[in-house]
Amino acid sequence: MKKGLYHIGLYGLLTILLANLLAWSCLWSLRQAAFYKPGFLVNQVTETHFDYIILGSSTGLTTLNTVRIDSLIHTNGLNLSMDDTGLPSQYLMLQHFLAENKTAGVVVLVINPWEGATTTVALSDNDYRFLPFINRPYVQQHFSAISEKGLPVLAWSRYAPMLGVSYYNAELTAPSLLALWQPERRNRFDARGNYVYPNDGFVFDKKPTTTHLHMEHPYLQKITEVCSKNGIALLLYQPPIYATEVKDSLTPNFINHSTLFKDKTYFYDAMHVNAKGRKEASSQFAEVFKRKIKSFGSTVLFKDI
């Protein structure tokens, strides 16, 4: 009986050690690659200074095309938005950017009225993409500070990487194998961090509505503080929403394009513009951004504007 328990314990321990070794290898592979945005920033973004970076969720990722903006007003931008994320994730991405000893003149924070109206803090669906960098203090602090439902697999992955890798198996294991073969491959974004939806989306007709923008989320203040501490100007951007007007009472450092498009042919769905909408939204943003830059004073220096 004792011998049997001994072997069960031994084999169990070896299984756990092997699982953690495989999980560590998975995270190591992703840490060396550009498949997800955190790894892309570390491994493919070689420039150290940008005139602006874009932080946001899928609306930031698909609305503002840095390539078009830069071609129009001669700036140098980088889109670090990630789909299915929230303000805590954008705060983490800003920390990640600065930890790589990179600087920016302006942070363009793409927002929405629904998230800003809540004070609830939660991990986002795609925060696991930072898991390869779990040993960095700011990443570990992010996962530890925000409660997870059930077992805190992300926070505990620093000590047992098998927890996070097994929980997000489909999102981490296959990409890690692909990263070994093609470390330069990116997951649905270009060399400047942009992604676009096609023009063949479908938008339901609806009556125009109005909502108010309330920025009460505690992580907005955290982002503001980090920008201030690092001499970065913060610009808030509300992207177009189909048949929805967002009213605000914010500072002048805000661009409200909620009603930029009335025609649904500019949209992929009610919340996201398509390729046609992105081109026009980026052009309109560039013109307003050019004027806004001048109001930032000596904080931001753009050579050609």
What is the number of strand segments? 7
Number of domains: 1
Distance between the termini: 80 Å
CATH class: Alpha Beta
In CATH, the topology is named Rossmann fold
Number of H/I helices: 12
H/E topology pattern: HHEHHEHEHHHHHEHEEEH
CATH evolutionary superfamily: SGNH hydrolase
Major sheet attributes: 5 strands, parallel
Helix content: 40-55%
Average of the residue pLDDT scores: 91
Q: How much of the sequence is in beta strands?
A: 5-15%
Cα-based radius of gyration, to the nearest Å: 21 Å
- The dominant shape is elongated
Question: Structural class per helix/strand content?
Answer: alpha/beta
Strand order of the largest sheet: 2-1-3-5-7
Task: Provide the low-confidence segments as ranges.
Answer: 298-305
At CATH's second level, what is the architecture?
A: 3-Layer(aba) Sandwich
